[in-house]
Design brief:
By secondary structure, the chain is an alpha/beta fold. It is built from 13 helices and 13 strands. The chain binds 4'-deoxy-4'-aminopyridoxal-5'-phosphate. The site of 4'-deoxy-4'-aminopyridoxal-5'-phosphate has 12 residues, from helix 5. 4'-deoxy-4'-aminopyridoxal-5'-phosphate binds next to helix 5.
């Protein structure tokens, strides 16, 4: 019988070195760590989905869903591919085009995780002090490494800001590979995003997701690009990647346009209140956000994180990748108020403790 070591030796080298993506369930009463919407939309439409014949495979081409998305996105269905979350499409893109894969850092961790699982070279270029793209360094890296793929999350997770559009355009023009503009958080941003640019740039791919606007449980995202690129991605996509329940629910869910828009408006206005609240707490540096979360810096991120958790409030501790930083997702008015109150008390207690120790 094989022992554990022999089994591990069977695993490909690049996989053996990785750690599983940590999405541990941590008990809490206020969940502000996952960048989900705090508002559950009416799910009455799911009843309709439940009447589907589940003995049959889903539509492999997700035709009805692509048609519904195309109305919102203002593009034709042949420019759309749906995925089991946009995560799956990041994987399809890397499997299709390969590396080197270039992205600014810090950014969404899946670009590097998926590149490494697919054994593709990845190159991270640090953002500048304002968390914007470092134009010179990005253009130099494009020239030197000729990346097959560039991922730009705008608004960027976890910093929250949008990158300068003119630098993004320079990157798209300079790149001899594919540039993926990941607009997971675009619904919360003040600009229009890059969808209208698809007609001008054949190497541009836009990623969008339903996860942030109220449907994270459906695991549905999409990529928009020229039909040529979509056709290549379809060669890599698994045949029935979006299940019947998600397809039917997403079609109906997306029809709740008024509610979706209203919830986005509420999140944006709560984000401003949360931002002002954070700015008024001494010892905290808050970074402006165009997304549904806010990044902030404290003197002792680990202690703030665990003290919040003791009070039942879960946020994201990013201090291992961005010194002293934590990320809070915008919740409901009540949740944000409870978070600000708890954070105020925790930081006050900490500065009193620091003074005593000094
Ligand atoms: N892109 C970015 C920038 C994200 O932050 C996320 C989710 N955290 C995703 C893509 C993936 O979203 P999903 O797979 O839920 O569609």
């Amino acid at each position: 019988m094989m022992n554990e070591k022999q089994l591990k030796n069977l695993v490909k080298n690049n996989i053996r070195q990785l750690k599983p993506y940590s999405a541990k369930e941590i008990k809490c009463s206020i969940k502000l760590d996952g960048n989900e919407s705090p508002y559950a939309l009416s799910s009455a439409f799911v009843k309709k989905a439940l009447s589907l014949p589940l003995n049959r495979y889903p539509d492999p081409e997700a035709k009805a869903l692509r048609k519904e998305i195309s109305k919102d996105a203002g593009i034709t269905p042949d420019m759309i591919i749906c995925g089991n979350g946009s995560d799956e499409l990041i994987s399809c893109l890397i499997a299709t085009f390969g590396g080197p894969v270039l992205y600014p850092v810090p950014t969404f961790s899946m670009y590097s995780i998926i590149s490494r699982t697919l054994d593709e070279e990845c190159i991270g270029i640090p953002l500048n002090a304002e968390f914007d793209l470092d134009e010179d360094k990005m253009l130099q890296a494009i020239k030197k490494s000729r990346p097959k793929l560039i991922f730009l999350s705008t608004p960027n997770n976890p910093t929250g800001n949008c990158f300068s559009s003119d630098v993004i355009l320079k990157i798209i023009r300079a790149s001899k590979g594919i540039v993926v503009v990941d607009e997971a958080y675009q619904p919360f941003a003040s600009d229009r995003g890059f969808m209208p640019m698809l007609k001008d740039f054949p190497n541009l791919v836009i990623l969008r997701t339903l996860s942030k606007i109220g449907f994270a449980g459906l695991r549905t995202g999409y990529a928009a690009a020229s039909p040529v690129i979509i056709n290549e991605l379809n060669k890599v996509r698994l045949p029935y990647n979006v299940n019947s329940l998600s397809q039917a629910s997403a079609v109906e869910g997306l029809k709740q346009k008024k509610e979706i828009r209203l919830n986005i408006k509420k999140i944006v206005s709560e984000r401003e209140r949360l931002f002002n609240g954070l700015c008024s707490i001494s010892g905290i540096e808050t970074f402006p956000s165009e997304a549904n979360f806010i990044l902030f810096k404290t003197r002792s991120a680990d202690a703030v994180y665990s003290n919040l958790l003791k009070r039942g409030i879960l946020i994201k501790n990013l201090s291992s990748s961005i010194k002293g930083c934590l990320r809070v997702t915008v919740g409901t008015e009540k949740e944000n108020t409870a978070f600000l109150k708890a954070l105020g008390i925790i930081t006050k207690n900490q500065s009193a403790k620091n003074r005593q120790e000094a």
